Amino acid sequence: MFKKNKIEVIPFKDFMSRPAACIQKEIPLQTSIYGFLPGMSLERFFDMSPQISGLYALVLGVGAFAMLSHLIEVNTAKNGFNNVAYVIETVTRFILPVATFGFMIWVLFKIV
């Protein structure tokens, strides 16, 4: 049940002297997925509608706000201003969900 498998050892001369018919030919992979994807280029990547670029700007702005508030909070706590860090944390924890739900409601009313 728990037998160790022995490793088969082939001498190099025997390996090199075997006929070419024994060697399996590699079958090239058929990649048909490229027909379904559009061509990717830098021009197409940055060529976007104003709505999409606005959404990218919104996501970048929210991310920058979150990182900046975190950096300010951590640095104020390190410098001994724990009350200021607590206020920054409280404001950030209030602003981000309110802004998220406000944006979702705005999108829903914009669609309707």
Count of DSSP-assigned helices: 4
What is the residue-mean pLDDT, rounded to a whole number? 81
Please describe the biggest sheet, giving its number of strands, its sense, and whether it closes into a barrel: none
Helix content percent band: 55-70%
Query: Radius of gyration in whole Å, from Cα?
Result: 31 Å
Number of strands: 0
> How are helices and strands ordered from N to C?
HHHH
Question: Any low-confidence stretches, pLDDT <50, length ≥5?
Answer: none
Q: Which structural class do the helices and strands define?
A: mainly alpha
Note the quaternary state here.
single chain
How far is the first residue's CA from the last residue's CA?
68 Å
Share in β-strands: under 5%
Principal-axis shape: elongated
Summarize the structure in words:
- With 112 residues, the protein is mainly α.
- It has 4 helices and no strands.
What's a quick, concise take on this entry?
The protein has 112 residues and is mostly helical. Helices cover 62% and strands 0% of the residues. It has helices at residues 12-17, 42-46, 50-78, 82-111.
Main attributes of the structure:
112 residues, elongated, mainly alpha
Ordered list of secondary-structure elements with their pairings:
Layout lengths: L11 H6 L24 H5 L3 H29 L3 H30 L1
